[in-house]
Automatic annotation (TrEMBL):
Keywords: Glycosidase, Hydrolase, Signal. It comes from Aureibaculum marinum. InterPro entries: FUC_metazoa-typ, GH, Glyco_hydro_29, Glyco_hydro_29_N. The record marks C249 as: May be important for catalysis. The keyword Hydrolase applies. Alpha-L-fucosidase is responsible for hydrolyzing the alpha-1,6-linked fucose joined to the reducing-end N-acetylglucosamine of the carbohydrate moieties of glycoproteins. Pfam families: Alpha_L_fucos. GO terms for cellular component: lysosome. One of its GO terms (biological process) is fucose metabolic process. It comes from the Bacteria. GO terms for molecular function: alpha-L-fucosidase activity. The keyword Cell membrane does not apply. The lineage of its organism: Bacteria, Pseudomonadati, Bacteroidota, Flavobacteriia, Flavobacteriales. This is alpha-L-fucosidase.
Length: 431
């Protein structure tokens, strides 16, 4: 029976479980698999018929992982400022990166690598105090008892062959049990739920199974909505998303996996800009890298992670453990707030040429400083009139020498919890 106290309790449990995720702000996504060898679309290249399945499988030969260095990967991720990582344990092509007992299409039995990829990476993440996220594709287009094979070739319909579908359910849920036993992930990142509905996937059962094993595990929403947080993909939400917990997953160029011919990288500045928009709206960024078939991370991607890392470390107080910021009318840029809402962080792009403006701040400002740099800043309030509680416009003087090369962050220590003026201007007319 539903009771108010029960629902308050479950909200508390949810908040406690989600807290590390909410505080983390940045995760690194890793797409690594057979597709990294030729540098073609992950799984989709054969599904959509750009290459035959047979030729796609030939990439097992080139999947050597000979320069795979899980410790260096984890250290680079740490250096970027990320607090968690999500790696593809198995993409839609069905190629598993661990020693699964369910079939032999995996990096130990079916590829030149002949090794378990996940085990050493998971332990390197944990050694670096990073949370472990495992991406798992529900569809497995190579598996003999899965319904879909390619875009225009379906093996069977569930209605016609329920037993065959049951074989698949046993297979995929067995793999998930293995992942849970071997790695006890902090986060499961499902993908591909669009091919079947919740009943067909047995989504509630899978959720229950995983949470029975680890009540603190977080699930993304792509388990037919039986997850804990929303996953907008590529497109940065323009208006703040409705969901309490969300994560934007985004590529650095235009591809998830390694593609030699994709040079369309976002600049570090652009990535920082998108990241600050994300945290300003209360979300996380899951930024993707795509290692090559031999395990090398492309140098463009290493460079972005390193530059990004310098910036996140310098500005950590404005990032981690903060909450989303204030409405845009008050400041034309991204903002975050300390959890107790007494410090407001302003993210300033480029050179403001002297002044940064904030409107309608009712609080008194006790101190303003440049985050990660320390200089104290002066400010002046204009347009405040004695006959109205309209608080005026605050101009903060920002000398050029304090500016960060990528994005400057300014902290405002307020005299209490932030209080914003949301009424009309200083009204004088009587009604
Ligand atoms: C999509 C694609 C997939 C990619 C994923 C990452 O769902 O199917 O290839 O791995 O997005 O979010």
């Amino acid at each position: 029976m539903f009771s108010w106290s029960q629902s308050v309790d479950s909200l508390k449990v949810e908040q406690e479980k989600m807290q590390w995720f909410k505080d983390a702000k940045l995760g690194i996504f890793i797409h690594w698999g057979l597709y990294s060898v030729n540098g073609i679309d992950e799984s989709w290249s054969f599904f959509n018929g750009y290459i035959s399945h047979k030729d796609y499988l030939k990439q097992t030969k080139g999947f050597t992982a000979k320069n795979y260095n899980p410790v260096a990967w984890a250290e680079l991720i740490k250096k970027s400022g990320a607090k968690y990582s999500v790696i593809t344990s198995k993409h839609h092509d069905g190629f598993a990166l661990w020693d699964t007992k369910y079939g032999n299409f995996n990096s130990v039995d079916a590829a030149t690598s002949k090794k378990d990829i996940l085990t050493p990476f998971v332990s390197a993440l944990r050694k670096n105090n990073l949370k472990v996220g495992i991406y798992y594709s529900l569809p497995d287009w190579s598996y003999k008892d899965y319904t879909h094979f390619t875009r225009d070739s379906i093996r069977y319909n569930i209605q016609d062959k329920p037993k065959r579908w049951q074989n698949f359910l046993n297979y995929y849920q067995g793999q998930l049990k293995e992942i849970s036993d071997n790695y006890n992930p902090d986060l499961y990142w499902f993908d591909g739920d669009w091919e079947h509905n919740s009943d067909e996937w047995e989504a509630p059962k899978v959720r229950k199974m995983l949470l029975d094993r680890n009540p603190n595990a977080i699930l993304n929403s792509r388990l037919s909505e039986h997850g804990d947080y929303a996953t907008p993909e590529q497109g940065m939400p323009i208006t703040p998303p409705k969901s309490k917990y969300w994560e934007l997953c985004m590529t650095m160029n235009d591809s998830w996996g390694y593609q030699k011919n994709d040079h369309n990288y976002k600049t570090t500045d652009q990535i920082i800009g998108i990241f600050t928009d994300v945290i300003s709206n209360g979300g996380n960024l899951l930024l993707d890298i795509g290692p090559k078939g031999d395990g090398t991370i492309p140098k463009e991607q290493v460079k972005i992670l390193e530059e990004f890392g310098e910036w996140t470390h310098k500005h950590k107080e404005a990032i981690y453990g903060t909450i989303g910021g204030i409405p845009k009318e008050h400041f034309y840029g991204p903002t975050t707030l300390s959890k107790d809402k007494t410090i407001l962080y302003l993210f300033v792009k480029g050179n403001p040429k002297g002044e940064v403006v904030i409107r309608g701040l009712k609080n008194k400002i006790n101190r303003i400083w440049v985050v990660g740099e320390g200089t104290k800043l002066a400010h002046k309030v204009v347009s405040k009139v004695y006959w109205s509680h309209y608080p005026g416009i605050t101009y903060i003087q920002v000398p050029e020498y304090v500016l960060d090369n990528h994005m400057t962050v300014i902290a405002l220590l307020l005299d209490g919890v932030i209080d914003l003026y949301r009424e009309d201007g200083a009204v004088i007319e009587s009604n």
